[in-house]
Specification:
Length: 189
């Protein structure tokens, strides 16, 4: 039986340049005919895949670069206009200061001048308070390095005042309950 199969194979085969080729239309082709083609396809497929990955990488890097530039620009614009709302609200106070200055130059009535200046001060305080600025209460409180900056120490008038704030040279402030300026104080020792 083996001889008949090999006879049949040789009958349906041609030998070209030392290579045996299967010419039987009913038999499957030999594997050596398909190998070079599949290797070439696989290499081309891998090259195409690498090129696609490179393209994706380059696009991603360009997109990230654009994102970084855009956010840097937005951050710069935000920093430049961050205080705009507060400044606009303080312009009303500035207008009142200009009117008070004009009134000071034109009038000699000290009571009216004093009243006008106090109105401007109160308007400034209320405007800042409306924006979340709150003054720190320091006098007669314990000295706290987290909130106070000691300018000097003086002998305490009473033993109870030792380690406490006796006087406030510069007032401290909070913005929305976050400390924005330390209070400069005199501490009793």
């Amino acid at each position: 039986m083996e001889n008949t199969e090999s006879k049949q194979n040789t009958e349906n085969s041609d030998i070209i340049d030392g290579m045996e080729l299967n010419t039987d239309e009913n038999a499957a082709g030999t594997s050596h005919l398909n190998e070079p083609v599949s290797e070439e396809n696989e290499v081309e497929k891998l090259k195409t895949e690498i090129q696609e990955q490179k393209d994706k990488y380059l696009r991603l890097m360009a997109e990230f670069d654009n994102f970084r530039r855009r956010t840097a620009k937005e951050r710069l614009e935000l920093m430049q206009t961050a205080g705009k709302e507060v400044i606009v609200s303080l312009l009303d106070v500035l207008d009142d200061c200009d009117r008070a200055e004009k009134q000071l130059q034109e009038s000699d009535n000290l009571a009216v001048q004093k009243e006008g200046i106090l109105l401007v001060f109160n308007k400034l305080r209320s405007t800042l308070q409306g924006k979340g600025v709150k003054p720190m209460e320091s006098i007669h409180t314990d000295f706290d390095v987290e909130k106070h900056e000691a300018i000097t120490e003086i002998p305490a008038p009473t033993p109870k005042m030792q380690g406490k704030v006796i006087d406030e040279v510069v007032k401290g402030y909070y913005l929305n309950d976050k400390l924005i300026r330390f209070a400069k104080v005199v501490v009793g020792k």
